[in-house]
């Protein structure tokens, strides 16, 4: 009778631990898939130092208009950044949190302008197309001319004297 009770306790415990292990494995697998999907997403908020800050929020923090077509007034952005960054200096009674937000806002706007400029550059490169002859000519002009051996000229046949 004792062996029956012991075996029931062992089997019940094994079943409970088995179910708990299976559930934990499912959760870990789902978490891993979610993390992999987010890390491969280039627009994920946590992939850059300006984590969690949208372009609209960044523009509102610095009180500038969003860059249109990749053309942003970076001088105005830097001017507003410098002013707000200095105003929120913790040594002058400001807030480190606000200072950090101002910094992240500037980084976010700069990143957006940089991405747009890079996309425009790639588009221009694609629009220009690949010009193999022009590149070949440039390559030939850039390397020094090496002396070549004179080619033997074919002897011309002269008509026999008559």
TrEMBL record:
One of its GO terms (cellular component) is TIM23 mitochondrial import inner membrane translocase complex. One of its GO terms (biological process) is protein import into mitochondrial matrix. The keyword Membrane applies. The keyword Membrane applies. It holds the Pfam family Pam16. Residues 142-162 have a biased composition (Low complexity). InterPro entries: J_dom_sf, Tim16. It comes from the Eukaryota. It is found in: Mitochondrion inner membrane. Residues 117-162 are annotated as: Disordered. It is a peripheral membrane protein. Keywords: Membrane, Mitochondrion, Mitochondrion inner membrane, Protein transport, Translocation, Transport. Its main location: mitochondrion. Gene3D superfamilies: DnaJ domain. Belongs to the TIM16/PAM16 family. This is Mitochondrial import inner membrane translocase subunit TIM16. It comes from Friedmanniomyces simplex.
């Amino acid at each position: 009778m004792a062996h029956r009770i012991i075996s029931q306790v062992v089997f019940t415990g094994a079943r409970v631990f088995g179910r708990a292990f299976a559930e934990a494995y499912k959760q870990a697998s789902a978490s891993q898939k979610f993390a992999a999907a987010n890390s491969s997403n280039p627009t994920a908020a946590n992939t850059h130092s300006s984590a969690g800050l949208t372009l609209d929020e960044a523009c509102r923090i610095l009180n500038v208009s969003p860059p249109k077509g990749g053309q942003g007034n970076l001088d105005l952005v830097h001017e507003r950044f410098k002013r707000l960054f200095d105003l929120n200096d913790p040594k002058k009674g400001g807030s480190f949190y606000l200072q950090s937000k101002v910094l992240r806002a500037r980084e976010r706007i700069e990143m957006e302008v940089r991405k747009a400029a890079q996309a425009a550059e790639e588009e221009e490169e694609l629009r220009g197309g690949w010009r193999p002859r022009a590149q070949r000519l440039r390559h030939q002009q850039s390397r020094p001319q090496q002396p070549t051996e004179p080619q033997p000229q074919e002897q011309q046949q002269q008509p026999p004297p008559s």
